[in-house]
Write the structure tokens for this entry.
Amino acid sequence: MIFMGSKKYPKENELDQYLSANGGSSNAETECEYTLFYFDIVEEHLQGALDRFASLFVSPLMLREAMSREIEAVESEFQNNVNLDANRIMQLVASKADGVASTFTWGNLKTLKTDVDSDKVYERAHEFRQKFYVGNNMYLCIQSSESLDKLQEIVVDKFSSITSGSRYLRNVESTNPFKDDFFEKVLYVKPKSDKLKLYVTFVMPSMEKHYKTKP
């Protein structure tokens, strides 16, 4: 939804079209703990791309009609990947967890549209963006042959309008995230593919504070 237009560049695919016209591309991915947005482009057009990119975080539109189409795209992606063995095992593990670890981490029509109030989905998406998509929660990395002073000048110009806010992160329980029987059973999954795999899971405390040394 972030990629689908901003107040400054309201055209829905403005960034993608600008990148495509100038030898670039973009993508995004969401993992359990972060979302990553990235693009590349011919260097002479970097500032134009950064202006369009930054505007998506300063004032994204996230329009209702665009959201309806995106829900259909999410469903399509879900159906394309739901039978992959790695995803099936991930859902099995989630069923043996408590708290946030038990959450359905995808979306589909059942969770986003069927018997769901569309107004509430729209409101929750905007609430989530306003709460978490603040400068305090973001990191920016730019690779360019420009000087560091020039890059800093560009970043201040393009990104300083992003709203700051509380560094609010979801609470993750420090206790064991799994139900007792997770440790007492071997779980067998009949694969869809012609492969045999063994997964051995060890539950460890958070390593986040040690990230610099990567223990």
Notes: The helical segments are 14-21, 46-58, 64-81, 85-95, 109-112, 118-132, 148-159. Strands lie at 25-30, 35-40.
